[in-house]
Amino acid sequence: MRDAEFFRRWMAATGAAVAREAARLTELDSPIGDADHGSNLLRGFTAVRAELTEEPPGTPGAVLQRAGRTLIDTVGGASGPLYGTLLRRTGKQLGEAAEVTDEQLRAALYAGVGAVAQLGGAAPGDKTMLDALVPGVAGLSTSYRAAADAAEHGALATVPMRARKGRASYLGERSVGHQDPGATSAALLLGALAEAADEASGGVA
Questions:
Q1: CA 190, CA 67: separation in Å to the nearest integer?
Q2: Mean pLDDT value across residues 114-133
Q3: C-alpha dihedral over 34, 83, 15, 50, to 10 degrees?
Q4: 154 pLDDT tier (thresholds 50, 70, 90)
Q5: Are 198 and 204 in contact (CB under 8 A)?
Q6: Which of helix, strand or coil describes residue 35?
Q7: pLDDT band at 167 (very low <50, low <70, confident <90, very high)
Q8: 3 state DSSP class of 76
Q9: What spatial distance separates the first Cα and last Cα of the chain, rounded to whole Å?
Q10: CA–CA distance, 61 with 99 (Å, rounded to integer)
Q11: Which domains can be identified in the chain, with CATH numbers?
């Protein structure tokens, strides 16, 4: 069972991963976006960590809903609404339970990913964060580590794609050959989830 502390560790691990990779995320965003993806997410997850530390929510669902609301409030561009929607819908799906099972978390993440797809009007293959999120969440049926690996592979698979959604889509064929920054940060999110699970289980996720 996963309690609120597990979800706070997940958000903290995500913040640490974003801090490590912020420069790379911005570098990826430079040729096909606004060159601010890393700095935006760093600001957002720094705020999330402060928010969850100052007044720790008591349930898994509340942790994710608070984190999502904070991202919407602090992150500019499309990233804030998309990541905020992902976490808020996932948290809402988890409800008010003090602990949740891995299966409940997987089902809730499916709902969150569906909300992201609806908000952005995107689908896998459009060169967006969904290219990492969809295979990543599917991988949760095997293990947390499998989910992280699938998300990472999904992010890498965006390199030859032509962007069909978001700012990168304006570039047409020039978007080909670049790894999508949103898919890359989504892989960081699921990698952080696997890290939290590893920590909780003593190295076996």
A1: 15
A2: 96
A3: 110
A4: very high
A5: yes
A6: coil
A7: low
A8: coil
A9: 13
A10: 9
A11: 2-200 (1.25.40.340)
